[in-house]
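Handout for the seminar on molecular recognition.
Each group receives one record of this type.
Step one: identify the two inputs.
Step two: read the structure output and locate the region that could contact D-MYO-inositol-1-phosphate.
Step three: write two sentences on what you found, then compare them with the reference statements printed after the record.
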Amino acid sequence: MLSKIEKAVLKAGEHLLKGFHSTKDVHFKGKIDMVTQYDVEVEKILLEELSFMSPEYGFVAEETHKERSISKKNVYIDPIDGTTNFVHGFPFCCISVGVYDGDEGEYGIVYNPVMKELFKAERGHGAYLNGERISTSIKSNLSECLIATGFPYSVAENGCGDLTQILNVVLQNTRGIRRAGSAALDLCYTARGVFDGYYEYNLSPWDIAAGAVIAKEAGAAVFGNDGAGYDLYEKFIMAASPNISQQLFKIINKSDQ
Ligand code: IPD
Ligand code: CA
């Protein structure tokens, strides 16, 4: 199954790469929330190439199949995670495909064709970057850690709310924060130990489904709101090296109140 999904993702990745180097038609879903013809076209290729999985699997995809699926088994697709980066030519964007049986992540593939990085994982079989096994960092001192995060598009309309306070606390307790602009890749960079931890609010299931499987298989602790396990429809996700996950969770939650 994983290799069939990989084939589909590689094919769709050729189109993403073409788009990265081409002129794009940009439309706005919100004040700063963009979509291009390539988001829609890459999703179409993925849905066609993955159609062998239906009817057993439902499909939830950002551009054309947003609705929550009633199927037990589902494929979550983000055709381009990091659309703002894609539009601006910042090479941190990817295709993300996560396969779930209920709440359980079975497979995850995240592919950045611009940087030629393909992350993949199957439940119980570890996580890989371009065929090499990856694992999270083992740091246990939060002050030595590099943390990733992101912000919802709604900040442009509604402001930052508690996010600024949380940033303040994380900045004071770690070596720094990066906001690279793709939740799927942030999770994969946590999986490979580049980031020691990652947290974000208000994401959608297609942003995190694949990356969460990859992070977990690389040994990361992946949490939702309650600090135990995660739910794709929850409004908070955190992934971190198990040695710092509790410390990070605590400071984020304290500053959140
Ligand atoms: C976005 C990215 C970004 C995150 C945003 C997401 P998109 O997804 O994952 O890093 O901070 O909140 O919506 O729009 O590029 O698919
Ligand atoms: Ca997207």
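Reference statements: The pocket of calcium ion (ligand 2) is lined by residues 39, 62, 78, 80-81, 83 (CB under 6 Å). Residues 83 and 108 are 20 Å apart (CA to CA).
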